[in-house]
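Whiteboard transcription, Tuesday session. T.W. wrote the C-alpha cells on the left side:
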C-alpha cells in the first residue's frame, strides 16, 4: 500500500492519545479533513494492508497478566520447524530470528505466570531444546511509536504511576476484550460495552483511568514498523554492573532513538547481558550510529555488549490477556 498524505498524518498523529470519546473517528476524521465514515474506511484500509495491527492499548508489562522474553539456540537446519512450534503457541505474540548464536527470540504474554511457564515447558518438550527465560526485572521506557515527520520526540506523554490505581477484575476483562484492537465502527466503545454488559461511560472512564495511571502506556495505533520503513530492528544489549544499571538505563531511555529500554536477568554462561534497548531504524548503519551515540553518552563503549538484528518475523500480534489455555492439561 502506498501511503498518501492523509494516511501518513493519521498514523503520525494517532499512535497515542486516540480519543476516548463516544465517536472517536468523527474527531479523528475532522482533524484530517475526513468525515467519520471516511476516517473509519481509511483505518480499515491501513489494517488490511498490514500498516497497523490494531488501534488499542499498549499495556505496561506485568501490570495486567504476566510476560517473559524467551530465546533458543536452534540449529539452522531446524529453525523454521522450531519457529513453527513456537508460533503455534497462542500466548506467543512476537517471534523473530535474530543475528546471534541464540537465534530465535520470542515474547510470551498471558493472563498469569502459570500460563506463561506452561508455554515455556511445552515448547521445550515439543522441540527438545532449552528455552532461555528472561523475565522483566525493570522497565525504564516502553513506547514503540514511530513518528513519520522525522521527529522522534513527544515521548512519555503519560508519566503516570501505576501506584495510583491497581487494576480490578473488570479492568482486566476490558483490556482482554480489546487485545486485538477496537472494532472499527462509529461507536467502538459502545460495541465493547455491549459485549461485556457494561455501560459505554464505564468503559470510557476505565480506559481514561488506566491511561492516566500508567497501566496503559499508550493508547492509539500500533504500527507494523517495517511497513513504515523501519527495517533495521536492533536489540542492543549490555552487561552493566548491577549498581550502575539504573543510572545507565536512565540515559539510554532518554534517547529519542530508543523505543524500549528494560532490565532482564543474566543467564550465565550463555547470556551475560542485563540491559536491553530496542532501536528501530531505517538501515543498519543508522541503527549502529544510534547505538554508538548511546555508548558515547553513557560511557559504556568498553562494556561487553552485542547487537542482534531481526532477520525474519515469524509472528507479530498483540499480547493475549485472556486465557485460551484454561482447562487444558
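and on the right, the sequence the group agreed on:
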Amino acid at each position: 500500500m502506498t501511503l498518501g498524505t492523509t494516511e501518513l498524518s493519521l498514523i503520525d498523529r494517532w499512535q497515542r492519545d486516540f480519543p476516548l470519546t463516544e465517536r472517536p473517528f468523527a474527531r479523528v476524521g475532522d482533524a484530517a479533513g475526513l468525515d467519520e465514515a471516511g476516517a473509519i474506511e481509511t483505518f480499515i484500509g491501513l489494517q488490511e494492508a498490514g500498516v497497523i495491527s490494531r488501534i488499542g492499548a499498549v499495556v505496561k508489562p506485568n501490570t495486567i497478566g504476566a510476560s517473559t522474553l524467551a530465546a533458543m539456540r536452534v540449529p539452522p537446519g531446524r529453525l523454521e520447524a522450531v519457529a513453527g512450534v513456537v508460533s503455534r503457541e497462542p500466548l506467543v505474540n512476537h517471534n523473530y530470528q535474530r543475528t546471534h548464536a541464540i537465534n530465535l527470540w520470542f515474547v510470551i504474554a498471558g493472563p498469569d505466570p502459570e500460563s506463561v511457564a506452561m508455554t515455556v515447558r511445552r515448547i521445550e518438550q515439543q522441540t527438545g531444546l532449552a528455552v532461555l527465560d528472561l523475565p522483566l526485572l525493570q522497565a525504564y521506557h516502553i513506547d514503540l511509536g514511530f513518528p513519520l515527520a522525522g521527529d522522534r520526540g513527544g515521548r512519555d506523554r503519560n508519566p503516570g504511576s501505576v501506584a495510583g490505581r491497581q487494576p480490578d477484575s473488570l479492568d482486566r476483562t476490558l483490556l482482554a476484550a480489546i487485545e486485538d484492537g477496537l472494532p472499527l465502527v462509529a461507536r467502538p466503545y459502545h460495541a465493547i460495552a455491549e459485549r461485556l454488559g457494561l455501560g459505554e461511560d464505564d468503559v470510557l472512564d476505565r480506559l481514561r483511568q488506566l491511561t492516566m495511571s500508567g497501566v496503559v502506556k499508550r493508547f492509539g495505533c500500533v504500527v507494523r514498523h517495517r511497513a513504515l520503513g523501519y527495517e533495521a530492528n536492533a536489540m542492543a544489549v549490555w552487561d552493566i554492573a548491577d549498581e550502575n544499571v539504573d543510572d545507565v538505563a536512565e540515559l539510554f531511555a532518554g534517547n529519542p532513538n530508543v523505543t524500549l529500554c528494560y532490565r532482564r536477568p543474566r543467564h550465565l554462561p550463555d547470556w551475560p547481558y542485563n540491559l536491553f534497548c530496542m532501536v528501530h531504524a531505517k538501515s543498519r548503519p543508522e541503527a549502529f550510529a544510534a547505538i554508538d551515540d548511546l555508548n558515547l553518552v553513557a560511557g559504556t563503549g568498553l562494556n561487553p555488549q552485542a547487537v542482534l538484528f531481526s532477520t525474519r518475523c515469524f509472528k507479530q500480534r498483540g499480547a493475549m490477556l485472556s486465557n485460551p489455555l484454561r482447562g487444558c492439561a
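Someone added at the bottom: The longest helix spans residues 113-127.
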